[in-house]
Amino acid sequence: MIKGKNICGEQLRIVPEGAIRFYLCPERKISFDGFVNYEGRRFGVPYSYPSATARVERSGDLLRIYSADLKVLLVTHTVTWSRTDSFCSGQYEPLAHAAHRFFLQKRSRDEKAKAPLQAIKMAYSGAFWRPREGSNLRPRA
């Protein structure tokens, strides 16, 4: 070694694996209707996830969506060339169940047969919409 000169290899530091993973899984905002945008396509996030951001990792034809701290795998999607939205299974399920219970409590016996269909229609129309935690959006009046 030459006196007074540093060789590049001596200055290398070991980077923790967690830091690399945060770099390789970019953070994405979750839209008001429960989707993240990645490579020009929209992928569904379960409605039960309360945060406003998630992290996305793609490997081959699989897209994995993690919580913002990378501790929980939320959902896995198959990436296709289709530009249509990719829903996850049960994406709005808790919302539909809450609406269903509401209608069953408020309707009379003769209308209970129609209640499940009405509950699902209300859930998808946005009547029971709530903003995600950390979002600046407010529910409709």
Kindly describe this structure.
The protein has 141 residues and is α+β, with helices and mostly antiparallel strands. It has two domains: 65 residues, no CATH class; 50 residues, no CATH class. Helix content is 23%, strand content 21%. It is built from three helices and six strands. It has a four-stranded antiparallel β-sheet, with no helix packed on it. A hairpin with a 5-residue loop joins strand 5 and strand 6. Helix 2 crosses helix 3. The protein is globular. The N and C termini lie far apart (73 Å). The mean pLDDT is 75.
Concise description?
With 141 residues, this protein is α+β, with helices and mostly antiparallel strands. The protein has two domains: 14-78, no CATH class; 92-141, no CATH class.
Brief descriptors of the model:
141 residues, alpha+beta, 2 domains, 4-stranded antiparallel beta sheet, two-stranded antiparallel ribbon, 3 helices, globular
The total count of helices amounts to 3
Question: How far do the termini sit from each other?
Answer: 73 Å
Structurally, the number of domains stands at 2
Gross geometry: globular
Low-confidence stretches: none
